Amino acid sequence: MRDKRVGVVLFTIIHASISYNDKKLIDINKLSFFERDKIGIVGKNGSGKTSLLKIISGDLVFENSQIDRQNTEFIFLKQSGNNALIQENYQEFDELLSKLQVFKVEFEHMSGGEKQKYLLSKILSSYGKVLLLDEPTTYLDIETKKWLIEYLKRIDTTMLIVSHDRELLDGVCNKIWEIEHEQVNEYHGNFNSFLNQKESEKRKHVTEYEKYISEKDRLLESLKIKQNLASKMSNVTEKKKIDL
Predict the structure, then answer these.
(1) Angle at 130 between CA 124 and CA 131, to 5 degrees
(2) Do residues 53 and 109 touch, judged by C-beta distance below 8 A?
(3) 115 SS3 class
(4) Could you say which of 28, 40, 109, 214 is the most buried, measured as most Cβ atoms within 10 Å of its Cβ?
(5) Kindly report the CA angle at 191 between 122 and 163, in degrees rounded to 5?
(6) Which of the 8 DSSP states describes residue 35?
(7) Residues 168, 162 contacting (CB under 8 angstroms)
(8) What distance lies between CA 218 and its chain's CA centroid?
(9) Alpha-carbon torsion angle 125, 130, 134, 137, nearest 10
(10) d(CA 133, CA 197)
């Protein structure tokens, strides 16, 4: 499927509502992403960012929603859970492990940073078409984080990234999805561009509100003048009746 404006559509979901403990988190009317999109997903803690990745990957299923994955393969780096089912390119996997200085020991014996590097190496050497990355810079040292940002920026791969790391979102993403008030709002550009657009929206809303208040005050003042005039006219009429 191809969208004439932006290219090949890789995923579309229509009508889905995400809830947790009977609290609605996200209400989706229609949401799509496209080939070569690098999307940062942001929002408050508990807003449903990871749940959205799970919907895209197929880990969460909704009976009443329409989902078209276009036979796309998704590779999901999870904050917790089983990442072991990823089929990697072994040669590239070994090269990445060597580059990130990760030694092949039992996974449970690795430190938090080593585990994250190991899983990133597995993800980045996979055969998948779309990367789903949930907080990929967690436990990474400064040098490894810089390397990851440059690597993700360079590769021609579609990816969706949940992260609180502004440096990552600024350096890699060309779109931002913000989850706010149960809606997913899309902004073009990196995280800094997103912040500028949000500030512009805020100023616009303030200006519109000020115009509304000004117009309301004007109408109330006009109504008050008309009421006073009507009262005076009524008094004059009553006086004429009395004089007669």
Answers:
(1) 45
(2) no
(3) helix
(4) 40
(5) 35
(6) T
(7) no
(8) 41
(9) 50
(10) 25
Give the count of beta carbons closer than 10 Å to the beta carbon of residue 173. Answer: 27
Angle between helices 112-124 and 90-99 (to 10 degrees): 140
Q: Following DSSP, what letter does each residue of 60-90 receive, concatenated?
A: S--TTSEEE-TT--EEEE-SSS--TT--B-H
pLDDT at 2: 47
Q: What is the pLDDT of residues 178-237, one digit of tens each?
A: 999 999 999 999 999 999 999 887 776 766 766 777 777 777 777 777 777 777 676 666
Answer yes or no: are the C-beta atoms of 20 and 139 closer than 8 Å: no
The neighbour count for residue 32, using CB atoms within 10 Å, is 16
Contact in structure between 186 and 175 (CB atoms under 8 Å): yes
pTM of the model: 0.78
Q: Which two tokens stand for residue 243?
A: 């004089």
Residue 72 CB neighbour total at 10 angstroms:
17
Contact 86, 122 (CB under 8 A): yes
Instruction: Count CB atoms within 10 A of the CB of residue 8.
Output: 13
CA angle in degrees (0–180, nearest 5) for 161-167-169? 30
